[in-house]
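ugh ok fine here u go
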Amino acid sequence: MMSEPIESALRTLDIGIFAPISAQLTDADKRSLLAIQQSLREQYAGYTYLEIGSHLGGSLQPHVLDSRCATAISIDARPVSVADDRVDSVPYPRNSTEHMLTLLREVAGDRVNKIVTFDADAAAVDPAALPSVPHLCLIDGEHTEGAALSDFSFCKKVVRRKGGVVAFHDGNIIFPALDRIVRELRAEGEQIRAYVLPSTLFVIEFGEARVHQSEAIRELLLNNGEPYLYGLMSMLHYRDVYSSRPMQFMRRIWHMINPSPRPWRP
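structure:
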């Protein structure tokens, strides 16, 4: 079990907190998530954390260890493979709540009792069934546009609207959904702030949330070229394929059949 200097680790954004249980996060993702967590701790005496897509519990670790986190909610349908807009599917071996809790208990002992789990798609969870209102929601489930829209629809219903945060992992994959979400929120007159953090986090703050004013977050925002370049470089393979000779030939045929391409809205 990690020793009590958890508070110091959070203040210094020590990603060693994530070491015991593997998480599909870059080191920069981990630092960004810790910066958000530390910002919440500065703003609130206690908070509730919710995540969609937990797998082994890697991203739950810092919140389970944190005494300021009163409740940690995990929503995961526990599939054996997960759809992804880049490929057909991604395997998720040993994807069970029991296995996750066993791993987390080795890290955090009885503090796992603060975890509330739902083995279901978020769309099937009754918001009234949540034990408390989340201050922070992390969306890291199925990496498809449709799933991201559905997961956000749920989080929008349950997050603390006077000052809550919704963060998306792998924004470089689900960016069409993010574009639609932000446009719709603006059209609805929602008071939000939207920004990116390294490597692939897209953050939406609601209402009075002032996470972005934390020193840890400000430093990341001042150096936000990294997530921009990370997102572009993640698309490099697709650009190379798109520019290949076979694809050039296919595009000429496609434009002959469909002379009016779908416009992009700036």
